[in-house]
Design a protein that fits this description.
Membrane topology: Multi-pass membrane protein
Number of helices: 14
Radius of gyration: 21 Å
Subcellular location: Membrane
Low-confidence stretches: none
Strand order of the largest sheet: 1-2
Number of domains: 1
Number of strands: 2
CATH topology: A middle domain of Talin 1
CATH superfamily: NCX, central ion-binding region
CATH architecture: Up-down Bundle
Mean pLDDT: 84
Oligomer: single chain
Pfam family, one: Na_Ca_ex
Strand content: under 5%
Structural class: mainly alpha
Shape: globular
InterPro entries: Alkaline_pH_Ca-Antiporter, NaCa_Exmemb
Keywords: Membrane, Transmembrane, Transmembrane helix
């Protein structure tokens, strides 16, 4: 082996996207089934966060190799697997009374973070960079409509149905919501990546479509297979380490005097961190449309794929599955949809729109901590 090849291999092995999943697996093997002290919990939590970031990176590599529309599905399925794994792990380790609403809290948190946090931050960055953030209202409007429909089907209707006591779906209603959510998400992916792809491309201030995103050469077959293996390792580490630190997370939230809904906010923040970073980078490159695609696409995947997965998991999970939102969260969701419509329709936004969305996110976080 030549010196150059050896150096290249050494550099690859020391890359964080390769080393972090391995370190996270080692941490899982060393801590599995043991009671963890405070410093060990911190180390395992850092490994968990790193494994999430590495998993999304390797999913993007595999997606780039597969191509569209299946590439988007690979990335969405990987992110949703992480979210569902964290939810199910915490539901299994906790008591049914405390975890009944965990899936609802996580999905709703994801909707608020994406539709207000990521959208608001990217509009603010884009508007400060170019005075006005420009995007395609046709594609973005369709994405927002899909998110609003999915959220209503899965999170609003259970608060008003009467087949089951409380804000719960009956088995038949849950099946319908799961199938409808999965179908809507699949239809949106087909429209976005195949039939009406130009609706989701960046546009200029004159309204002209710009199909000049930086398209790197797809990774080699070997690189994609390596990333697939590392993706699998990272996902295993995420699930295992989440189970190890879940008691500490729940006890820490309780000790701080916060309601159990804060656990769902923490999960959503962790899962959506990579998408947030990618969306902000796109906004800094004057690709606000790409940022909005990431934001609303993440919200759709969080509902359209997580709810069906939780519906299947509920077959063997003990206890109720609370999906209906309480009154305060219903108001926040309704206000988010209304503000989103007023933002999307003109196809351009000033820093004011970004600030309005960020204020809604701040209200959501504050009311989650102090309901």
């Amino acid at each position: 082996m030549t010196a150059k090849a050896t150096a290249t291999r050494r550099a690859y092995l020391t890359n964080w996207t390769v080393s972090v999943p391995i370190v996270a697996l080692i941490a899982l093997l060393l801590t599995w089934g043991r009671e963890l002290s405070g410093p060990v919990v911190v180390v395992v939590s850092l490994c968990l966060a790193g494994a999430v970031l590495a998993a999304v990176h390797h999913a993007e590599v595999v997606a780039a190799r597969v191509g569209e529309p299946f590439g988007s599905l690979v990335l969405a399925v990987a992110v949703t697997f992480i979210e569902v794994a964290l939810i199910v792990t915490l539901m299994i380790s906790g008591t049914p009374e405390k975890t009944a609403s965990l899936a609802r809290d996580t999905v709703f948190s994801a909707v608020m973070i994406t539709c207000n946090g990521i959208v608001g931050l990217c509009l603010l960055v884009g508007a400060l960079r170019r005075r006005i953030a420009v995007f395609n209202p046709e594609g973005t409007g369709g994405a927002l409509a899909t998110v609003a429909t999915l959220a209503t089907l899965s999170l609003v209707f259970p608060a008003f149905t009467t087949s089951e006591p409380g804000p719960e779906f009956s088995p038949a209603q849950l099946t319908f919501a799961a199938v409808a959510s999965l179908g809507l998400y699949g239809l949106f992916v087909a429209v976005q990546t195949v039939r009406h792809r130009d609706y989701f491309l960046p546009i200029t201030s004159a309204g002209e479509v710009v199909d000049s995103e930086e398209h790197a050469d797809p990774p080699s077959h070997t690189a994609a297979l390596v990333s697939l293996g590392l993706l699998t390792a990272a996902l295993i580490a995420v699930v295992g380490n989440a189970k190890s630190v879940s008691p500490t997370i729940e006890s820490g939230v309780a000790a701080a005097g916060f309601p159990p809904t804060v656990v769902g906010v923490i999960i959503a923040l962790l899962v959506l961190l990579p998408e947030t970073l990618a969306a902000v980078r796109a906004a800094l490159r004057d690709r606000v449309q790409t940022s909005l695609n990431l934001a609303y696409g993440s919200a759709m995947a969080s509902i359209g794929l997580t709810i069906p997965a939780i519906a299947i998991a509920s077959i063997w999970l003990d206890g109720p599955l609370t999906l209906g939102l309480p009154a305060t969260q219903l108001v926040l969701l309704g206000l988010t949809v209304v503000v989103g419509i007023l933002t999307v329709v003109p196809g351009r936004a000033t820093p004011l729109q970004g600030g309005v969305h960020l204020s809604l996110l701040a209200a959501f976080v504050f009311l989650a901590v102090r309901p």
